Amino acid sequence: MQMTSLNGIDVHYALTGPDDGAPVVFSNSLGTDFRLWDQVMPLLPEGLKILRYDMRGHGLTSTPEGDYFMGDLVQDIGALMDQLGLKNAVFVGLSIGGMIAQGLAAERMDLVRAMVLSNTATKIGTVSMWQDRIAAVRKGGVAALEQSILERWFSQKFRAHNTVELAGWRNMLCRTPIDGYTGCSAAISETDLYENTARLTLPTLGIAGTEDGSTPPDLVRETVSLVKGAKFKLIRGAGHLPCVEKPAEFAQALTEFLKEVGHV
């Protein structure tokens, strides 16, 4: 287990690969931990130096009380990368992880040379929607929203034919600390990265799932189109977590992008 202290919290992370490998950083979605990427890892090119981590309030990382801000989440991963000596990384972020990617790319050009924005946007949902979600979780725990969340996360076909695996994802979701889920929800609710992302010029790949009930393909496409020269990949039959439903397609798209930007 790899742990470190920064920004007043203890952060759980996994750093693998050779010391001289090209760095790739993965940032996961709300309600998951860094195991989100497990099925993609063995499908990537050898020789990469890969960092995965649990954001604050998730997995084995500390869970501060109160609302979080997107700046907190961006500063956390920036501080972790500084500690580990990682620069010029390709940053892969899904959902809130994609928002973190955009924020970090805007603030720390030394850390991010290219980014993959999976199932994300510059702004996700409305303030009132997130307030309702926060209130429901504070009253009944994350389990109060589990059915609707899993329906957005996964396609109907996946839910019907992968019941055992689905139970695992349900457990991961429902074990997310209330303060962690509501804190990160508050961060999403107050974030609009449109102006910052529109000023970015780094190589960018957008990935979307056709069955995504949280960030539909048109929203992801609109987001990545803000970055000049960005490319877009649509994964058919996948919901909000295409790295879980279609890991081979996700890994192939990521590998092709890594090759295009000269990272492998």
Give the low-confidence spans.
none
Number of domains: 1
CATH architecture: 3-Layer(aba) Sandwich
Largest sheet: 8 strands, mixed
Mean pLDDT: 97
What's the count of strands?
A: 8
Query: What spatial order of strands do you see in the largest sheet?
Result: 1-2-4-3-5-6-7-8
The H/E string reads EEEEHEHEHHHHHHEHEHH
Distance N terminus to C terminus?
27 Å
Number of helix segments?
11
* Name given to the CATH homologous superfamily: Alpha/Beta hydrolase fold, catalytic domain
Helix coverage percent of residues?
40-55%
Portion of residues in beta strands equals 15-25%
Alpha-beta classification: alpha/beta
Shape category? globular
State the CATH topology.
Rossmann fold
The top-level CATH class is Alpha Beta
